[in-house]
Design a protein that fits this description.
This protein is an alpha+beta fold and about 325 residues long. Helix content is about 55%, strand content about 20%. Among the domains are: about 100 residues, 2-Layer Sandwich (Tetrahydropterin Synthase, Chain A), CATH 3.30.479.30; about 60 residues, no CATH class. The chain has a three-stranded antiparallel β-sheet with strand order 3-2-5. Strands 6-7-8 form a three-stranded antiparallel β-sheet. The longest helix has about 80 residues. It is rod-shaped, with a radius of gyration of 61 Å. The protein starts with about 25 loop residues before the first strand and ends with a helix. It is found in: Mitochondrion. InterPro entries: Band7/mec-2_domain, Band_7, Band_7/SPFH_dom_sf, STML2-like_C, Stomatin_HflK_fam. Belongs to the band 7/mec-2 family.
């Protein structure tokens, strides 16, 4: 508490008192202090730190001002927000004396004046914003309060360094409502996160099924292509073998007695076919030329003659 009387100056949480010293003519002013001297009851000068000289009985040390930064507790006070919510707030104000003359003669009780100014400024700034923005804009509130106090305290020779809102007390109903809102927001975020997780899981499963189907279809396509290529290769080989057989058959036909060989082959197949059909108990087949038995016998005899010729040729070769 700053008293501009002659006896003491109290500041910060720890009480420090500065008694006005007696004028002995030779004075030593401590660092970061300013002594206000009156001569014959009128302000005369401000003594700086170090060695100073004054006239005894004529000059008097009227005030001792500390030039250090001091902290003042701002007590709890009620403030109404823009949405009509009553809050209880307190804070800490940091200030320092920049003009010892104004601090001594500009205000009667500097601490009381600064405290009242800080409280009124806080109420005014709180009334401009909603409850939801009080906690968000605490730094802005502190800056606005500092600017207002600095402007108002300039004639007092005091500079406000900073202001900090320390505690904000809410009504119990508002606190419960805010707690319920916070819990609802948390549940909402949890539900959103859970739904997003399920969505991601479904997407991952769908992607896996899609990838599996793509790979399966690619495998079937590769299998089909390979199978088709194999069948094409087989058909090509069969066609080549048949073409080779036809060429050999054509060569055989155009050779000596080739026609007889053809007739013999036809006769063999003819006889084999009739042999297979003869095994059936209820099937009867007649030759296409049943009335020309002599021609059929002649063909068979001719084939037998060619077979005997081949056997004789084979025995001669051996």
């Amino acid at each position: 508490m700053l008293f501009n009387g002659r006896f003491l100056l109290q500041f910060t949480a720890a009480v420090r008192t500065y008694k006005t010293p007696i004028n002995t003519g030779i004075l030593f002013v401590p660092e970061r202090q300013a002594w206000v001297v009156e001569r014959l009851g009128k302000f005369y000068q401000v003594l700086k730190p170090g060695l100073n000289f004054c006239i005894p009985l004529v000059d008097r040390i009227a005030y001792v001002q500390s030039l250090k930064e001091i902290a003042i507790d701002i007590p709890d006070q009620a403030a109404i927000t823009a949405d009509n919510v009553v809050l209880q707030l307190n804070g800490v104000l940091f200030l320092r004396v920049v003009d010892p003359y104004k601090a001594s003669y500009g205000v009667e009780d500097a601490e009381f004046a600064i405290t009242q100014l800080a409280q009124t400024t806080m109420r005014s700034e709180i009334g401009k914003i909603d409850l939801d923005n009080v906690f968000k804009e605490r730094e802005t509130l502190n800056h606005s309060i500092v600017q207002s106090i600095c402007k108002a305290a300039e004639p007092w020779g005091i500079e406000c360094m900073r202001y900090e809102i320390r505690d904000i007390h809410l009504p119990s109903k508002i606190k419960d409502a805010m707690q319920m809102q916070v819990e609802a927001d948390r549940k909402k975020r949890a539900a959103i996160l859970e739904s997003e997780g399920q969505r991601d899981a479904e997407i991952n499963r769908a992607e896996g099924i899609k990838r599996s189907q793509v790979l399966s279809s690619e495998g079937r396509r590769t299998e089909t292509v390979n199978h088709a290529a194999g069948e094409a290769e087989a058909i090509l080989r069969l066609a080549e073998s048949r073409a080779m057989a036809v060429r050999k058959l054509a060569d055989a036909i155009t050779s000596n007695r080739g026609e007889d060989a053809v007739q013999m082959a036809i006769a063999e197949r003819y006889i084999d076919a009739f042999a297979k059909l003869a095994k059936s108990s209820n099937t009867m087949l007649l030759p296409s030329q049943a009335g020309d038995i002599s021609s059929m016998v002649a063909q068979v005899c001719q084939s037998l003659q060619f077979l005997l010729f081949l056997l004789q040729s084979k025995s001669l070769d051996q």
